[in-house]
């Protein structure tokens, strides 16, 4: 995940796994199925002496990679780092949005820092001795 401010509307700044999976789109699920199927086919084609064992190992690795990709895409949409217009209509926006500071032109950019205080609050050293 990027460390800067999100470019889109924040729906939930800290979504759990269930919310991330519920927010996945059909394209995410088709990508996961294609990745898993492609990994199985690769294991079947490359595993000459033991084709089914290599294919099933490839399927397990492909499903692991696909599940991580699903969670990454769903979490990025809920946190506002990917395009999320449908999710904003479905779930609504978070009440505390980070301030989006203008960066200026590309020729004369304005140094605004990487993250706003809403995204990365300043450290509070009062509780430490």
Describe the structure in brief.
The protein is mostly helical and 129 residues long. The protein has helices at 17-22, 26-46, 51-79, 85-91. It has 4 helices and no strands.
CA-atom Rg in angstroms: 20 Å
How many DSSP helices? 4
**Low-confidence segments:** none
Structural class of the secondary elements? mainly alpha
Shape: elongated
Average residue-wise pLDDT: 87
Count every beta strand, where a strand is a DSSP E run of 2 or more residues.
0
Which range does the strand content fall in?
under 5%
Oligomeric status of the shown chains?
Answer: single chain
- Please write the string of helix (H) and strand (E) elements: HHHH
Describe this structure in words.
There is one protein chain. The longest helix is centred in the middle third of the chain and has 29 residues, at 51-79. The chain has helices at 17-22, 26-46, 51-79, 85-91. It is elongated. With 129 residues, it is an all-alpha fold. It has 4 helices and no strands. The chain starts with 16 loop residues before the first helix and ends in a 38-residue tail after the last helix.
Features:
single chain; 129 residues; mainly alpha; elongated
What order do the helices and strands come in, and which of them pair?
Elements: H1 17-22, H2 26-46, H3 51-79, H4 85-91
Helix pairs in contact: 2-3
């Amino acid at each position: 995940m990027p460390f800067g401010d999100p470019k889109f509307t924040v729906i939930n700044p800290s979504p759990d796994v269930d919310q991330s999976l519920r927010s996945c789109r059909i394209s995410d699920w088709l990508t996961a199925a294609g990745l898993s199927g492609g990994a199985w086919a690769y294991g079947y084609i490359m595993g000459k002496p033991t084709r089914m064992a290599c294919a099933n190992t490839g399927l397990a690795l492909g499903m692991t990679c696909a599940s991580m990709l699903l969670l990454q895409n769903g979490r990025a949409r809920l946190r506002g780092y990917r395009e999320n217009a449908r999710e904003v209509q479905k779930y609504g926006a978070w009440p505390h949005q980070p301030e989006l500071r203008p960066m200026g032109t590309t020729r004369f950019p304005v140094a605004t820092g990487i993250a706003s205080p809403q995204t990365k609050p300043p450290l509070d050293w009062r509780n430490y001795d």
